[in-house]
Amino acid sequence: MRPLPPGPRNRLLYATRYARDPFGWSLRWLERYGDPYTAPTLLGPQVVTADPAVVETILGADPDVFDVVGAELLAPVLGAASLILLTGERHRAARKLLAPPFHRASLATLAGPIVELARGRLAELPRDRAVDIQDTMRAIGSDVIVRVVFGVTDPTAARALTAELLALVETLRPSFMFMPVLRHRFAGLGPWARFQRACERSQTLIGELIAARRARGAGAEPAGSPDILDLLLGARWADGAAMTERELWEQLMTMFMAGHDTTASSLAWAVQLVHRDPAILARLRDEVAGADAAALAEAPYLEAVCHETLRLCPIAPYFARALRQPFPVAGVEVPAGVGVGIATIGIHRRPDVYPDPERFDPERFLGRRYSPAQFLPFGGGARRCLGAALAMLELRLILGTLLQGPPLRLTGDGAIRATVRNTTVGPRGGVGVAYAA
Ligand code: HEM
After folding, report:
1. Whose CA is nearest to atom 11 of ligand 1?
2. Does the Cβ of 192 fall within 6 Å of ligand 1?
3. CA distance linking residue 218 with residue 201, whole number of Å
4. pLDDT of res. 220
5. Is the CATH code 1.10.630.10 the one for domain 11-435?
6. Would you say the CB of residue 319 lies under 6 angstroms from ligand 1?
7. pTM above the 0.85 mark?
8. Does residue 391 line the site of ligand 1, with CB under 6 A?
9. Where are the chain's structural domains?
10. How is residue 244 annotated by DSSP?
């Protein structure tokens, strides 16, 4: 058997460098070691590629070849029933169950409510000082999940639930995620105990939500279009069993975890990127002026700006699959147990696909589509982001709504700096903005 391709050797140094500068180091490793290289991740070695032709073979392979990387570490945090951790038939069944409300056509009615939620939070921006726009975006992203996925329409109840879920996320720590030995309550003190208490509080709130739905009557038609909680309550596994309360909570929390911070980081970067370039900003403001929610959802330049943001600053600059059986990656037979990694950032910065790749240039997305192996901010294959259409809708509507408001200016130097935030990547130090004088 051929040895694995070369790559950095020190696992801790690798992890520290990735955490500190995920874009820069991912690109440096590709340049230094070639494509593919072997990454010594804390979850084991992974053979990494940024070659679209090779990526096509990975994304097009039988999904049963792959396992979830780090499932045993994530299970106690996300829950074993979480869609992110399911594999095989159970994963296929859960996706089939959960996907319909996330289709583009099913989302059309949500444009108005999303704009309303964005306007509410943006109106609270202070006039007299700088803020980190990522915090505002995180609040809007959470509001959207609570409204769309959990179906909470009462504004006070929705805000209370959002606050509780954001507090839960604040208690997540890489220490106990990567070191299971730290998952002890230590007499109620310490990060794991705090996380557990936050989980229990959110479980109680979501339990009440579920009880209220059930009290409405089994099988009763929901008042409006069914939200995802309605669908989950009515769903049955192949053996006829309904989801338990614990399973329901795990799926809902998965949507929240996967859906709020990802959107917020992408939006914060979009705000930063467009405010660095007066010509792009002026063209965008012109396009969105006076547009209602439906028009924002269809605005072509706004969409191109969102795509270009996701290209230049992907929140998952890298994603991986564990192998259940040997799999060829660019002529190297990678053995079972090893991972295969796709360096999205490396693909998104390829000059043969995206000329002058460091430049923020939304024009490249106008009237042009890239293949699923050339543009993959939402991953790909059987595990492609379930919320991609919702995320794209949110990006357009929330950025568009912000640009319809009073002009803002950046308070920092505008340089793109990335850092690892929980399991994804976002702007290091946030994105400071203030109202333009
Ligand atoms: C800009 C925003 C977002 C980005 C860039 C993003 C990106 C991603 C990526 C890269 C993956 C991994 C895909 C893979 O392994 O191939 C993923 C998975 C996932 N995302 Fe998103 N996401 C976003 C927003 C959302 C939203 C709003 C939701 C739902 C409310 C969501 C739900 C999920 C779920 C459930 C998965 C797991 C899918 C599976 O394992 O089958 N995401 N996302």
Report:
1. 385
2. no
3. 26
4. 54
5. yes
6. yes
7. yes
8. yes
9. 11-435
10. P
